[in-house]
Amino acid sequence: MNILIGVLAFIGGSLATWVIIVQAMKSRSRKIIREAESEAEVIKKDKILQAKEKFLQLKADYEKEINSRNAKVLAVENRLKQKELAISQRLEEYQRKKKEVDTVRENLDTQLELVERKEEELERLHKQQIDKLESISGMSADEAKEILMESLKGEAKSEAMSYINDIMDDAKINANKEAKRIVLNTIQRVATETAIENSVTIFHIDSDEIKGRIIGREGRNIRALEAATGVEIIVDDTPEAIVLSAFDPMRREIARLALHQLVTDGRIHPARIEEVVNKVRKQVEEEVIETGKRTTIDMGVHGLHPELIKLVGKMKYRSSYGQNLLQHSRETANLCALMASELGLNAKRAKRAGLLHDIGKVSDEDPELPHAILGMKLAEKYKEKPDICNAIGAHHDEVEMTTMIAPIIQVCDAISGARPGARREVVEAYIKRLKDLETLALNYPGVLKTYAIQAGRELRVIVGSEKVTDKEAEELSYDIAKKIQTEMTYPGQVKITVIRETRAISYAK
User: Fold this and answer.
1) Where is average pLDDT lowest: 241-245, 302-306, 372-376, 403-407?
2) Which of 426, 494, 430, 491 is nearest to 460 (CA)?
3) Domain 200-286: assigned CATH number
4) What is the pTM of this model?
5) Which of 48, 196, 308, 391 is the 20 to 30 Å CA partner of 32?
């Protein structure tokens, strides 16, 4: 019994404890829920506040962008209004001038009618007077005129001839004097430099031991260098010097710079030679552009097309009858500017035409045309003014002169080329023969490069191995020799060497 009571008491106590625990847990749960609700409310308020702030920020940015756009629109509207006002003013001015022109035209028409009426009246009175004279003299007007003309013919003729001779003598004296004054003043105000280009460049070396490395085993290095540059390299007994021979100054410069880099670097072999020559060729092309830009800046000639600037730079490596072409063009441009100033013409236009007048000599386009015509076409192609183009094309009378600066270009070109020591025609003829020799062989299919060496006594023709076979190479050599015999005049004989080389190249990756 006591055990039962104890069990019941234990169960009762357990139940009471459980009830208390449950009540406590419920109270805690309610507290947690209230805290969660309170925290949720705080978070909600924060989010709402952040949303409001974000909204206000976006609204402010939008209003700022709208204001900016409105300001731009307002500025555009203001500019449009100003343009509209200017157009309206011009239109009013045009209408006013048109009214003035119409008024003047009406007055002229009225005066013309009065003149015509007066002429008709004079003609009528003149006819009446002639009729009266004919009736009085008993001869017609033609007869009287013939008698009068015969009586005065000899006297008028002698007086007219004397008057004409006096005028012509006076005009010749004054014209010659004025022309001499302008030409002499122009020449005296230009400082000239004599620059005679040769066809040989001397490359100096530190010791003769380097010659053997340049020649290479069985001459492979020197052959690779000659094939890459088109320059004949003469290694002889001259101490500490190698001779570079070619009619083209640009080729000689490329060969000189390439040799300098190879000797300085010390690695001389065919692959390295081709790499250095290609690199130097790009450097020289960049230098050509830089020379053209520097020349135009020095001369004050602005707005030239990049291709025309490049052609001006290429003049540095060209000569005309032994006279450096760039120096000749600069000299001609300065002469043209001075002479145009003396004559009251546009000096800047004259200087521009003088600088560009020989660009046809350095262009590779259409070599069949005279250089003046080719230069004019290039100037037209690159949007030069018509008077500049005409002056370039007319400076050797290939086209008719239509502008005032054209004869100035012709005269100044002659002044620059005719001064003592400026030109050597023998050198120019020699260089032209070598160029013609190269051009003749280059027209054959499959030919990649042509080089005239040994003063034109040998022509080396490099062909593509994939385009020309060995048999065709032999035939090509024979055909070129026959064509040279029939079309060209030259001293001695010309050796034609056709080079066909096959290369196998692969890369290890």
Assistant:
1) 241-245
2) 494
3) 3.30.1370.10
4) 0.46
5) 48
